[in-house]
Write a structure and sequence with these properties.
18 strands; alpha+beta; four-stranded antiparallel β-sheet; single chain; ten-stranded mixed β-sheet; 3 helices
Length: 270
Amino acid sequence: MKKKCLVILSLTIIISATTTLIAHDLWLVPQKFSINPGDSLTIFANTGMDFPNSLSAVTPDRVDQFILAGKSIKEYVSDLKVQGNSLVTKYTFERTGTYVVGAALKPKEIKLTAEEFNDYLLHDGLPDIYELRKKEGILDKAAVEHYSKYPKTIVQVGKILDKTSIKPLGFPIEIIPRVNPYELKLGDDLEVTVLFQGKPLSNAEIAWSYPGRGEEFAGSKKTDENGLAAIPLVKAGPYVIRLTHMEWVKKETHEWESYWTSLTFEVSPK
C-alpha cells in the first residue's frame, strides 16, 4: 500500500512539474522603468510564473525580433546574450520620450499527453479550449502544440510623455494600453486592448500581477466584445499584464497553436 501511494505521489509530481514547465510566461523587465536621457539600461527577458523572477534563460537563437520603438525611431536589437537565468540586452536612450521594447520568439513545438494538455488548459486561462475538446470528444487525445511568445515593456525616458505606448508593434498578439500608463497613478484603472492578428480579441482571459504574489495572479477577467479590459492598478511598482490565446489549427504537423503575450510597466504611487 505504501509503495502504491509513493507511485501515485511520484506521478502527480511529474505531471505537475510538466505542466509548470510548459506554462512559463516570458516578461521583459528593465533595471528601471524610468530613466534620464543619456542613461544606459539593461533589459532582462525573464522566464517563469513568479514575476519578475526568472527560472531559465531564453537563448538568442530563439529570438525572431527584438524591437525598440520610440516617437521617432524603431530599431532592431541584435546584441543579446545570456546572463544567469536571463536573456539580456543593454541600450543607451539618448532622447526624452516613451519607449516600447518588444520581443518575438520563434514558434516551438511541444508534445503532451491528453492529461498533461487538459491540466495545462485549466491552469493557464484556457478553459474554453478545454470545453472545446470536451465538446468534440477529444479530451483523451494527446496534443502537439506550437507556441510563440511576444513580451513587451514600457520605459519612460525623462518627463515628456508621448503616445508610443498606445501604438502596436505589429506582433501577432499584443496588449496595447489605451493611454500611456505613466499618465496614471495608484488606484486608477488602465484600459487595454488585446489585438490578435491586428483585430480585437474578445473573451480572452487576461491576468495581472506584481512582485510578491508568487505564482498566484492578483486578478483576471475576460476581454469584452471589443477586446477591451480595465486593469486595476492596486500596487505601486512593477506591474505585469499577461494572456495566452490558443487556436485549433488542425495541421498535419500540429493541431494547436498558442500565442503568449505580456506587458510590463511601473505604477506610480502618486
